[in-house]
Amino acid sequence: MDRPSIDLDWERQRAWVEIDRAALRHNVCQIQALVAPATKIMAVVKADAYGHGAIEVARTLVAAGVEWLAVATIPEGIELRAAGIVAPILVLGAIDTDVQVRAICQWELQPTICTIAQATLISKAIAQLAPRKPLHVHLKLDTGMSRLGANWQQAVAVYRELHALPYLEIASLYSHLATADDLDPTVMELQVDRFERSQAAIRAAGYTLPMLHLANSAGILVGDRLHYQLVRPGLILYGLYPAPHLASAIDLRPVLSVRARITQVRDITAGTGVSYGYRFIADRDLTIAVVEIGYADGIPRRLSDRLQAIVRGQLVRQIGTITMDRIMLDVSQIPDLQVGEIVTMLGADGNNKIGADDWATELGTISWEILCGFKQRLPRISVN
Ligand SMILES: Cc1ncc(COP(=O)(O)O)c(C=O)c1O
């Protein structure tokens, strides 16, 4: 299920996402150095690897020593399998139909189980298949996120049922942290405590514990008590910090840059309105550049008139409303700018850089949302 390949002539591309594989490898090394040698990394590559392009990212990660991958949905897992990736893949989302179970089995994915009903459905669906192979499943406990998972107080009851069902092998017990990036560790400690009490209860019921995992990016940076046998980094793989106070724990390099080309350079006189709604009116004569990237590519329209870009290493301001396919920049300070020159929207050029965090702060959102905003219209180019 590889995407249709387009003959991309990079010299003439209007806009693209640049993926720095060396930065990705660097971030993996940094995580490997933080966790114990026996602790495995499960790279979270859902949502097209946080907008970075799942196939290329997964290949690079696996080559860098990452042993596990996690996706949110079955189609995301199939996309990786169809591209020839053989690493074990955990599907983080819930499944509740026979069709999903068949796809999971066919593509050798590993599902998350949150309820006895799901486990029973999976077991019964496998019983209808030929050949009937046992499936590795992962029991998720809700220890305080109030999202997916069996209530941690029912851990033993659910574990017992799962264990007794044919065709299911419990590969791991896991949970997800709600507040690991908070300065105040109270809720996180409570979740760790509940996770550990669940483990103790399962052990006390006579079972040998499977692989355990809890830590997202922030959980990894908080300390090794949360690492168990496996960690599930997302954001830090892509080179961004989950919170400023965790930045000293690791040295990361942003993996993604977004660049676009100038298609027109024009002079406008004082009083000229720019773009839809004339939210910008030139207060003096200006030179403006029209750049081939817009909100359909992932540039948030709400950043209109608040965005900066880098041209020839210099920061310039974006002016007027961001449109679907293009934006305008005030490039009056840059002499003799040419059509075809490259504009950096995110990333570094010369001594300047703009990060997803900068946009997130300006918008009052999180960098995760900014990264996931770069969808398929922008081709991904790998460098390094
Ligand atoms: C279950 C689970 N584990 C790990 C992660 C990775 O989170 P982060 O990007 O904060 O590392 C996610 C992402 O949302 C998740 O849903």
Walk me through this protein's architecture.
By secondary structure, this protein is α/β, with parallel strands linked by helices. The protein folds into two domains: 21-238, Alanine racemase (TIM Barrel), CATH 3.20.20.10; 256-354, Beta Barrel (Lyase, Ornithine Decarboxylase, Chain A, domain 1), CATH 2.40.37. Helix content is 28%, strand content 25%. The chain has eleven helices and 20 strands. It has helices at residues 21-34, 46-51, 54-63, 74-82, 98-106, 116-127, 155-164, 186-204, 217-222, 356-363, 367-372; strands at residues 15-20, 40-44, 68-71, 89-91, 110-113, 135-142, 150-151, 168-174, 211-213, 230-231, 256-268, 273-274, 280-281, 286-291, 308-311, 314-319, 327-330, 342-349, 352-354, 380-383. The strands form three sheets. Strands 2, 3, 4, 5, 6, 7, 8, 9 and 10 form a nine-stranded parallel β-sheet that branches. A six-stranded antiparallel beta barrel has the order 11-14-17-16-15-18. Strand 3 (68-71), helix 4 and strand 4 form a beta-alpha-beta unit. The relative contact order is 0.14. Pyridoxal-5'-phosphate binds next to loops. Pyridoxal-5'-phosphate (PLP) binds at residues 44, 92, 176, 216-217, 232-235, 242.
Helical amount among residues, as a percent range? 25-40%
Overall CATH class of the largest domain: Alpha Beta
Structural class by SSE content: alpha/beta
Global mean pLDDT: 94
Q: Give a quick account of the main beta sheet: strands, pairing sense, barrel closure.
A: 9 strands, parallel
The CATH architecture of the largest domain is Alpha-Beta Barrel
* Strand residues, percent: 25-35%
- Shape from CA axes? elongated
- Radius of gyration, whole Å: 24 Å
Number of helices: 11
What ligands can be seen in this structure? pyridoxal-5'-phosphate
Low-confidence stretches: 1-6
CATH topology of the largest domain: TIM Barrel
